[in-house]
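Pinned message: reference record for Fic family protein
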Amino acid sequence: MFEEIDQKKRLLDNKRPLPVSTLKTLREKLLLEWTYNSNAIEGNTLTLKETKVVLEGITVGGKTMREHLEIINHSAAILYVEEIVKKNEELSEWQIKNIHRLVLKGIDDENAGQYRKGQVFISGAEHIPPGHYLIDEKMEELIAWHNGPAQVLHPVEKAAMLHVFFVGIHPFIDGNGRTSRLLLNLDLMKDGYPPVVIKAKHRLAYYEALDKAHTKEMFDDFIELVKDELADTLDLYLESL
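Predicted structure (tokens):
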């Protein structure tokens, strides 16, 4: 299932260390596209070009303050994820809460970094997340699974499953989608992969694969989607070299 990905990663690893200028350009491109697409999936109406302008510190007329903050916050959360990767820290609830706190900073400070206190429902999905009174237990189980049994999985499968299980728990009142995609890439980057960009144009397939994983425990569609998006990023790196 991962032969193509493994081959492309080997090709990329054989070209390391990559030129500093190339790495800088790729990082800037991926930070922009990751931020744009992750927010667009959640309904943010800023275009890719408008997202770039906001990241440069310019306000876009006709767009809400929330939409601007979603862009700025996501970029800050990526920087935090990169710091965790550099330190090679083991995944923890503290990190997850910090990521979420950055995602909702200035948007919903009361709930930023705090597990939800009530039931939530995922719009358009059959899956119903667990009651709020189970979140502490479910998150502890998730961390224990990730830092224990999951370590034998292929890195792409491990990262994809982390995303699936986290979204299934839906531990926060808002911002779970953005946080889950940040966690997906945190896990991939720690294993030496470049980040994945789940494209907004694949939103329907993305949601359908997640719901299939949650309601039928059939994970292959979601893992395949992540694998395909990762292959695109690896191709971008290889073409740049």
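Pinned by admin. Summary line: The domain at 14-240 is CATH 1.10.3290.10 (Fic-like fold).
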